[in-house]
Structures are given as structure tokens and as C-alpha cells.
């Protein structure tokens, strides 16, 4: 989380605003989608339950209608006087009994099978029948071994029993004749035909189970995909726990009907609807991203321009390029920044112009104090007197001093040629070598192409003086070297002053170019280069303790006043 927060914190403001717009749009959409999905799922669940209840109600109602037919048929047979007389009247002979059985009993008991195909047989068991007459009239003693007989009670309604397995059948039986003659009417029904209204609903991942009043399974079936098949299809508890179900009781039989479906099938349609809406959601997300990016770009663009302008100002370019006419916070900030920079540039210009005027005034005042002709004549006399006295060393110093001041004063001009500047530094070094008893050596690498190029005067002497006083004089090395270089680098002129003296820390070396420096000479050179050349001129220092110091000046071939 910290890493994610750090990445988000370091994102550009434009992307942060885009993500904010995207989140502000997506979060309500996701809440609405989740709410709608739950609502749709609940609605579908309720609709599915209603559909299952209607289906189950219709199925049970169809079976109940059949059950009423069988009840009416049983009532009709129980109140039939012809059938009652056969069972209650003693026949005069076996033949007479046979004729009555064939002409009366058989039509009554066989005719319903013609109109109702699900009735497989109608049998009447009675104590008055001693010999079985086919499957229609049978002695009551033969019924006592049947499973359905043991389950019978004294109720006059049809009592139902089911036999499952290979010989599936439904038996509906009823006692009647309570006037001393005991008889039992038994209807054998087709298992599949009777339950067909219910079993026909077992399709499209639907299952069903029927229990009798004792909890025994009457019917159990399902039509489901492999992943939805119940592990315990005849366990009501398992079905109630793992499926969506509906139940209904059938009063005549006492059976309890259950129909069930997997919950995943019910909610699957929700996901289908959601999948159909995915392209719409994708388009909405794309539109949100585009709108968020365009909005953030519109809002942040002026801030980015302001930031870029501030970075340029840090690099030395003090011109404000961003503007705004809006009255919002960003517009107020930009206009305040422009006013601040205008005031700053005005103050900087005043300071630089004042410093330049002061430097020019000081230089002119110094030059005014020195009469070049008087100085040159005096040095010439000293040189001739030294030669007459045979003092060659004094003569060399006098000539070097004369050359140095002639190139330094340069007739009061602030600019000179590179050739004059090199002559000036050579004269200065001849004097320094005599003063230091040749304790160091000087190496030169001067490009002949630079001789006529115009440069500010006295930009090398402070560097050489600083190298001797703070570099070579402070070093205890036996071999002390001073390097002077001047060469062309494209359209730029590069001067290098390097010594192998004591050196210093790089941080301290960089301070000598700033106002923090206690020395005036090197800092003065750096300021003059900045004033004359602006960003085109550059001065740099490299140093390390014990390895000496290198100062480089890089100025354009033609001097240009710095832009204000």
C-alpha cells in the first residue's frame, strides 16, 4: 500500500485528476450495477419461485382431477345395486353365479378401463366370493397377503399405496358395504400415466420428488446438467439445503409434492444480461477516461506551463511566457507570478546596471590616476639605467612590468584582443617567476586562431594570481606546474587555467564563483562574463584536495550583450 501511495503521490497532477474523474464516474456506476444485479437476481428468484409454484400447482391439480375421477368411480361401484346383489345374494347354482359375474360384474369392472387408459385393472375382493372369477371378483382371503391390504384402515375414502422398482404401479383401494358384508375395491393404476402431469415438468434443469403421508418416496426424478445433478436425489433435507424449491400438498392422497431447481441456473440469466451490458460499460469507461483526460488537460495545462516556466527561470531564463485571463485560482496565480518576475527582473536589471556602472567608474578612476606616458617613460628610464649598470634581471622585470601595464590599461578600453590578453598574462608570469625564484614551471597551449578575437580584458590575470597564491604557494610538492590554455571549440573560445597545487573541496571551489566568496578577483571575472554574455558565457571550477584546481572560461566568439 505504501508503494502504491508513493507511486500515486509522484504521478503528474494531470494523471491524478484523470484518475479522480474516472473514480468519481466508476464508483457510482459500480454501485448502481451491483444494486441492479442484486435487484434483478431477487426479481428473477421471485419470478422463478412463482413459475415453479404455478407449474407445481397445475401438475397437482391435474393429478387431483384424476384422483376425483377415481373417487367418483369408486362411489359409483359401491352404490351399484347390481354389484351389491351379486355380493349379498346367495346364487341358486354355480352356473347362475357365473352368468351374473359375466353379464353384470365384468362390464361394471372392465368398462372404466376402456375410458381411462391409466386404469390397468379393477378388482373386487369379498368374503361372499369363494372362487376367483378372473381378475375382477376374488375371495377376500387372497387380498390379505397383498402389501396394500396391511396399510388399509376403516376410512371409506380411497387409500393409496405405491410400488416402485421394476414393477411400478399405484394401487387405490377402498372398503365398502358395512352392512355385514366386507368388500374391498382395488384399482391398479399405471404409475407413469398417473404421475405424468408432474413428471413431464422434469426438464431444463428441474427435479421433483413426491412423498406419501408417511414420508416414503413415491416418485423422484430430475433432468439436469451434470454439474447440477443432486448427490442425494431422494433426500428432502439435501434438496432443501442445496436447491431452490416449491412444495404443495395433495389432500386426497396425502402426498407432498416438491419441485426444485439449482440456484445457479436461476441467477445465470443475470450474468447473461450483465454480459450483454459489458460493451455498454466498456464504452462508458472509455468515455470517462477520455472526458477525464481532456478535462484534466484543460485544467492542468496552465499549471504545467507555469511549472515549465519556473524551471526555465531556475536555469537562468528569466522571461515569463505563460499568461492567463481567467479569474480562477490558477489565473490569479499566473498573473501574480508575472508581476513578481517583472519586479524581480527590474530589480536585477537595476543591480546589474548599477554594478557595471560602478565597475566602469572604478576602472576609469584607476586608469585616470595612472598617466600611461609618465608610467611608460619612467619604466623606460629604469630599464636603461639597469642596462647601464649591467643589471639584466632588473631590466627583465622592468620590461615585463611595462608590457603588463600597457596591456592592462589598453587605452582605457574594457575590451581587448585575445592576443593582448595572452601577452598581458605572459608579462605577469615573468614577474611572478622572478618573484618566486622560478619555483614553478609554466605550460602553454595557445591556439593561433584566437589572436584577433575580441574578449573582456583582465579575465585571466585574477585566475593565474589565484592559482599561484592559493594553489602553488600552498603546496609542498617539489614539481609545481601551471598550465595556461586557449583554444577554439566551434563558435566558442575556451580558456583554461590549471595548477597542481593544494586544491580544495569541490563545494568550496564552487563558492569562489558566487557572492559567498571572500576573494573579489575571480568572482569579478565571473560576474563580468555573466553580464556581457548572459547564458552564452560560462565559467566553471574543478578541484580536489592535493590534486590542484582547474578553472575554465567559455565565451562565444562574438560578444553579445545579455538579454534583460
Helix-strand layout with pairing:
Layout: H1 2-10, H2 13-78, H3 81-88, H4 94-115, E1 119-126, E2 137-139, H5 147-150, E3 159-163, E4 169-176, E5 183-189, H6 191-199, E6 206-211, E7 217-223, H7 236-242, E8 244-250, E9 255-261, H8 263-314, H9 329-369, H10 372-388, H11 392-409, E10 415-417, H12 418-435, E11 441-446, E12 454-456, H13 461-472, E13 481-489, E14 492-499, H14 506-511, H15 521-533, E15 538-544, E16 548-556
Parallel strand pairs: 1-2, 11-13
Antiparallel strand pairs: 1-5, 3-4, 4-5, 6-7, 6-9, 8-9, 10-12, 13-14, 14-16, 15-16
Helix content: 40-55%
Question: Low-confidence parts lasting 5 or more residues at pLDDT below 50?
Answer: 559-564
Class of secondary structure makeup: alpha+beta
Give the termini distance in whole angstroms: 49 Å
The largest sheet has its strands arranged as 2-1-5-4-3
- Indicate the proportion of strand residues: 15-25%
Q: What would you call the quaternary organization? A: single chain
- Main beta-sheet strand count, sense and barrel state: 5 strands, mixed
> What integer value in Å does the Rg equal?
60 Å
* Global morphology: rod-shaped
Strands, total number? 16
Number of helices: 15
> How confident is the prediction overall: mean pLDDT?
81
Structural summary, described in words:
The protein has 564 residues and is α+β, with helices and mostly antiparallel strands. Helices cover 54% and strands 18% of the residues. It contains 15 helices and 16 strands. It has a 5-stranded mixed beta sheet with strand order 2-1-5-4-3. The longest helix is centred in the first third of the chain and has 66 residues, at 13-78.
Amino acid at each position: 500500500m505504501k508503494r502504491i501511495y508513493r507511486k500515486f503521490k509522484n504521478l503528474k497532477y494531470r494523471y491524478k485528476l484523470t484518475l479522480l474523474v474516472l473514480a468519481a464516474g466508476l464508483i457510482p456506476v459500480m454501485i448502481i450495477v451491483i444494486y441492479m444485479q442484486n435487484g434483478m437476481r431477487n426479481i428473477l428468484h421471485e419470478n422463478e419461485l412463482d413459475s415453479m409454484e404455478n407449474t407445481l400447482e397445475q401438475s397437482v391439480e391435474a393429478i387431483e382431477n384424476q384422483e376425483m375421477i377415481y373417487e367418483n368411480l369408486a362411489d359409483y361401484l359401491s352404490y351399484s345395486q347390481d354389484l351389491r346383489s351379486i355380493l349379498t345374494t346367495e346364487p341358486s347354482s354355480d352356473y347362475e353365479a357365473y352368468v351374473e359375474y359375466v353379464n353384470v360384474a365384468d362390464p361394471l369392472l372392465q368398462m372404466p378401463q376402456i375410458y381411462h387408459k391409466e386404469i390397468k385393472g379393477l378388482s373386487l375382493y369379498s368374503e361372499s366370493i369363494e372362487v376367483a372369477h378372473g381378475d375382477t371378483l376374488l375371495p377376500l382371503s387372497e387380498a390379505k397377503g397383498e402389501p396394500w391390504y396391511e396399510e388399509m384402515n376403516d376410512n371409506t375414502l380411497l387409500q393409496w399405496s405405491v410400488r416402485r422398482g421394476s414393477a411400478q404401479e399405484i394401487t387405490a383401494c377402498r372398503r365398502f358395504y358395512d352392512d355385514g358384508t366386507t368388500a374391498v375395491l382395488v384399482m391398479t393404476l399405471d404409475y407413469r400415466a398417473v404421475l405424468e402431469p408432474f413428471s413431464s415438468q422434469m426438464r431444463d434443469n428441474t427435479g421433483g420428488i413426491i412423498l406419501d403421508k408417511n414420508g416414503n418416496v413415491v416418485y423422484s426424478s430430475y433432468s439436469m446438467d451434470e454439474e447440477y445433478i443432486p448427490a442425494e436425489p431422494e433426500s428432502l433435507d439435501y434438496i432443501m439445503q442445496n436447491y431452490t424449491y416449491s412444495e404443495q400438498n395433495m389432500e386426497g392422497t396425502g402426498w407432498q409434492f416438491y419441485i426444485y431447481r439449482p440456484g445457479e441456473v436461476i441467477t445465470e440469466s443475470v450474468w447473461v444480461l450483465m454480459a450483454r451490458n459489458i460493451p455498454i460499460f466498456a464504452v462508458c469507461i472509455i468515455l470517462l477516461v477520455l472526458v477525464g483526460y481532456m478535462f484534466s488537460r484543460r485544467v492542468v495545462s496552465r499549471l504545467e506551463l507555469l511549472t515549465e516556466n519556473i524551471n526555465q527561470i531556475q536555469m537562468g531564463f528569466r522571461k515569463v511566457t505563460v499568461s492567463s485571463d481567467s479569474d480562477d485560482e490558477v489565473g490569479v496565480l499566473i498573473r501574480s507570478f508575472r508581476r513578481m518576475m517583472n519586479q524581480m527582473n527590474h530589480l536585477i536589471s537595476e543591480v546589474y546596471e548599477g554594478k557595471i556602472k560602478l565597475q566602469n567608474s572604478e576602472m576609469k578612476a584607476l586608469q585616470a590616476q595612472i598617466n600611461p606616458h609618465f608610467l611608460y617613460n619612467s619604466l623606460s628610464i629604469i630599464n636603461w639605467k639597469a642596462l647601464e649598470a649591467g643589471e639584466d634581471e632588473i631590466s627583465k622585470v622592468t620590461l615585463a612590468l611595462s608590457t603588463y601595464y600597457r596591456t592592462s590599461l589598453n587605452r582605457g578600453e574594457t575590451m581587448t584582443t585575445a592576443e593582448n590578453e595572452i601577452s598581458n598574462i605572459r608579462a605577469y608570469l615573468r614577474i611572478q617567476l622572478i618573484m618566486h625564484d622560478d619555483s614553478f614551471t609554466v605550460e602553454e597551449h595557445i591556439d593561433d586562431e584566437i589572436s584577433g578575437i575580441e574578449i573582456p580584458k583582465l579575465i585571466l590575470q585574477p585566475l593565474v594570481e589565484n592559482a599561484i597564491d592559493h594553489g602553488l604557494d600552498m603546496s609542498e610538492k617539489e614539481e609545481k606546474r601551471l598550465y595556461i590554455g586557449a583554444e577554439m571549440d566551434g563558435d566558442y573560445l575556451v580558456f583554461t587555467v590549471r595548477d597542481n597545487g593544494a586544491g580544495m573541496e569541490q563545494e568550496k571551489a564552487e563558492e569562489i564563483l558566487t557572492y559567498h566568496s571572500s576573494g573579489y578577483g575571480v568572482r569579478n571575472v565571473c560576474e563580468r562574463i555573466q553580464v556581457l554574455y548572459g547564458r552564452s558565457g560560462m565559467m566553471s571550477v574543478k578541484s580536489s584536495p592535493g590534486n590542484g584546481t582547474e578553472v575554465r572560461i567559455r565565451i562565444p566568439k562574438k560578444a553579445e550583450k545579455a538579454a534583460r
